[in-house]
Write a structure and sequence with these properties.
This protein is an alpha/beta fold. The protein has a single domain, classed as Guanylate Kinase phosphate binding domain (2-Layer Sandwich). The strands form 2 sheets. A 5-stranded parallel β-sheet has the order 2-7-1-8-9, with helices on both faces. Strand 5 and strand 6 form a beta hairpin. The relative contact order is 0.20.
């Protein structure tokens, strides 16, 4: 937990967890929002991906990634044990199904930092359990400024990311919610509001009937 204050009291109504997918063009601030959400909410955990790349010296199995060879990765896909997957620069990445389903059944929420294509796959794999939040930059000029300010990309890479951003933004209408990240703290507050509202949806309250019965009985 950060110093943002204690978590909200646990509801007396048992509920099913949800998958919160954050998607955005590179440079929009998605990583910063992701970190803030994880720091401020104890019931939210990041989905840990499976990858076929080799671990870096500081990376731990099951903490940063689940490291598997290509054969094991392909077997997970073939058996339906991957919610979404993609190939990136000759390596494979994906989100394992089992830990997510266990979390949802226990009433815990899972955060996905993936693109719109991954969102499509997760939504198809877990219909009714996925909330999509798309994060927009205030303008393309501001997005380019942010990419240049972080000084981590070449000119060619910045131009590539800008071109990709326009394509990615065209998929915003597939999502449930959208926010514009003009001021980070406001964007974090809005993302937390989406999470709270999604948790309170009637469809997630698996223990509502039992709670209502006890409430009306005076217990």
């Amino acid at each position: 937990m950060s110093d943002a204050g204690p978590s909200a009291p646990t509801s007396p109504i048992r509920r099913r967890g949800l998958c919160l997918v954050l998607a955005a063009p590179s440079g929009t601030g998605k990583s910063a929002i992701t970190r803030a959400l994880l720091e401020r909410d104890d019931n939210l955990a990041l989905s840990i991906s499976v990858t076929t790349r080799k671990p870096r010296p500081y990376e731990q199995e099951g903490v940063h990634y689940f490291f598997r060879d290509q054969e094991a990765f392909d077997a997970m896909v073939a058996s339906g044990n991957m919610l979404e997957w993609a190939g990136v620069f000759g390596r494979s990445y994906g989100s394992p199904r089992e830990p997510v389903e266990q979390a949802l059944a226990a009433g815990r929420d899972v955060l996905f930092d993936i693109d719109w294509q991954g969102y499509r796959q997760v939504r198809a794999a877990l219909p009714g359990d996925v909330v999509g939040l798309y994060i927009m930059p205030p303008s393309l000029a501001e997005l380019e400024h942010r990419l240049r300010t972080r000084a981590s990309d070449s000119e060619a890479e910045i131009l590539r990311r800008m071109a990709t951003a326009v394509s990615e933004i065209s998929h915003v209408h597939e999502f449930d919610y959208v926010l514009v990240n003009t001021v980070l703290e406001q964007a974090v507050a809005e993302a937390l509001a989406v999470l709270t509202a999604s948790r309170l949806a009637l469809s997630r309250q698996t223990g509502l009937d039992g709670f209502t019965t006890r409430l009306c009985a005076g217990s």
